[in-house]
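The methods section describes the discrete structure representation at length, but only in general terms. What matters is that the chain and its backbone geometry are given together, residue for residue. For illustration, here is how one protein appears when written out as sequence plus structure tokens:
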Amino acid sequence: MTNHEILEEYQGLMQEDLQACILFATRYLENTAFMPLGAESP
């Protein structure tokens, strides 16, 4: 979903709101280690 699509879907939001959410998520997760998941065999 693009920023434009989100802003159209949620009329009360502004571009600055999305930027604040992304900044928050970036700072919150910056010291988080992610482990890749292996693909399941059929």
Summary: The chain has a mean pLDDT of 90. The first helix runs from residue 3 to 9.
